[in-house]
Amino acid sequence: AQSVTQLGSHVSVSEGALVLLRCNYSSSVPPYLFWYVQYPNQGLQLLLKYTSAATLVKGINGFEAEFKKSETSFHLTKPSAHMSDAAEYFCAVSPISSGSARQLTFGSGTQLTVLP
Amino acid sequence: EAQVTQNPRYLITVTGKKLTVTCSQNMNHEYMSWYRQDPGLGLRQIYYSMNVEVTDKGDVPEGYKVSRKEKRNFPLILESPSPNQTSLYFCASSLWGTGTENEQFFGPGTRLTVL
Asked: Average model confidence (pLDDT) for chain B?
């Protein structure tokens, strides 16, 4: 069974500082990987996804993530945090060879706070 | 505008009073799903549907029912709500296509409180 672990339920950074949100997955084969963002009182919005085409994936709003098979990781980064980045971020995994139609398993989320 | 809509957005009810949360998508997606979001637990899948008249249980189906009579609609039914079903609920949809890399589109959420 696949699973996703997000290290750090809360992360605080100063405006302009590097953002690093960690995600590790557990799967017998490399899956599809996603990062979603949830702004206050809104639904989830896709930031980026890894589908095996390239290990470094660029997403919206200046975010990117690097798939590292050896580390089973898919950490999310942004070089310079902006106040508008304050939100909750979810990593999710989906099996490439799907014996299940459920499609997505979510991590527990990381709340990002950006300090002025 | 392509979107997933949910109604109501907020609902306060009492134990045992049947309720339905509606979900509708206008993207002709085959796959639809319901999740509940609880602090520290992320999103957990309740039920999903691969197409009309095809539904299956997710990870936390107890106390919930769904139906998929039309492609665009996927209502969530709580026959006898209990306080442990107090949560934030999201409906989502995606193309089924040839793989599971399809992005899921989420509704705005329904915050349910059961007293």
From this structure: 92
